[in-house]
């Protein structure tokens, strides 16, 4: 059948090991784009992706490759997101393929992310072709890394391909290996249509573009389709494949990966992992393993200038058009005014959205402490999920609070192991495994996500000078002795600073918060007490003493322009302040106060 000449594969790699560079090489080698079109990395198309050099959304490319056996093959490359926050999307991309290229930087070796993704691919019974990239580097040690792949991952690496995506070494060997070593897809032409919604994105000219993998049946232009999960129906206006340019087709057949356009309004209407079938003659069961991506980290975003609220709302609507995993809901805070409670897949996702809001929409924002989703068992038998510590019910009604835990893997040169263990221990971690590969250690911890959302990455990076790699998976919810800590400035609770903490850490956290606020809040004309409290009980306290002099005092008798300038300067500074009762708190104070050390 036709699909004997198809190979569907994804590329698994740790960040910076060369996935995008290699993908570009494969496209170039098979003639998908001219040299001029190649001048930019094509697969990473969003600005922020380019700037940070990370892949956020999966994309797909169809390559035509005339192999040594005389036949021309269609090689469908699915680019997978490289970051932990997007693990669910990775799993969908992998499910659309039969095999994977495992790219390992031959000068670095296996990293935490390589592991997490390769295990997912093995779970999907993928055939795996290991590629040792960057062999052009003097520091490359292909033999050592080959051994490491066998030891750590447990797959045969004797026929790993030595390559340099940068200088073009080994590209043909990789293409031949894809044809010879990866299995072709399978499917039934006669069966009712069954296709997987692998991904989707919003294009200003085309609307929502859906990426599909056809499992069974044939999809034709003009067909009426149904999404089983959302129950929505659409008429297919356009079909095709990416080379990476869009090439229109009349049909897509089993084993193929391509796009469809069907007047779908929003990306939120398309659920990654959903099953697409014909409205008239549907398949009997949806594809397995569909679950909508759930936000796990929440925080409040408020405009610094209350007049920007409508603009913020519009900007969030625009972002959501292209990112269904980002959620937002209006929220009002006594301290911060009107804003939004936003849900994210993880910390990187949060950072990306925040950055896009400020960069693309020019909005100045205050972000409250990121918080995880808590589950609460109430004394009356009710179950509550809590997205915002400010909404915490009365403690006497709560029987049990459960928090999400993660399974974390950290790989590091062994010199840094000591400080890493200490960090994980401080964050209530439970060590589950520790092993060595040469001079690198791999340590596994169970950690409460709550302890990771603040600044775990930053701390890990700084104590290991960037040499450690970190990856995690959400594991389960566990009961914990958690309490709500409130912060009071001049006896007024600042809701944006309240948080749920483990009882054992409340005092330390409270003390450090008060000390920081003391430095961050400017003096006023009166004395300002700062307190951290659990319920009515104060656990930490600091006081900002009153300011003695009027700032303009030294200008008395001086010239008027100078005085006006000084007042203007103060006014400009004030824009970034928020008023809490009688006290003004600068925006930086929030961000800084929420970082721990
Ligand atoms: P993410 O998109 O963040 O997951 O990274 P990536 O794995 O796609 O890595 P990318 O292709 O962006 O490459 C990272 C860096 O390594 C870039 O600076 C590349 O130029 C460089 N690089 C990639 N392949 C090679 C290679 O074979 N040799 C050398 N010397 N450098 C390479």
Automatic annotation (TrEMBL):
**SMART domains from the UniProt entry:** EFG_C
**One Pfam family this sequence matches:** LepA_C
Q: Which GO terms describe its cellular component?
A: plasma membrane
Q: Which residues form the Tr-type G domain?
A: 4-186
Q: Which residues form a coiled coil?
A: none
**Example GO molecular function:** translation elongation factor activity
Whether Zinc-finger counts among this entry's keywords is: no
- Which EC class is this protein assigned? hydrolase
Enzymatic reactions: GTP + H2O = GDP + phosphate + H(+)
Q: What is its EC number?
A: 3.6.5.n1
| Membrane topology qualifier | Peripheral membrane protein
Superkingdom:
Bacteria
- In its UniProt record, which GO terms are filed under biological process? positive regulation of translation
* Binding residue positions for GTP: 16-21, 133-136
Q: What CDD domains does the record tag this protein with?
A: EF4_II, EF4_III, LepA, lepA_C
Q: What does the sequence similarity comment in the record state about its family?
A: Belongs to the GTP-binding elongation factor family. LepA subfamily. Belongs to the TRAFAC class translation factor GTPase superfamily. Classic translation factor GTPase family. LepA subfamily.
Q: What is this protein called?
A: Elongation factor 4
Gene label:
lepA
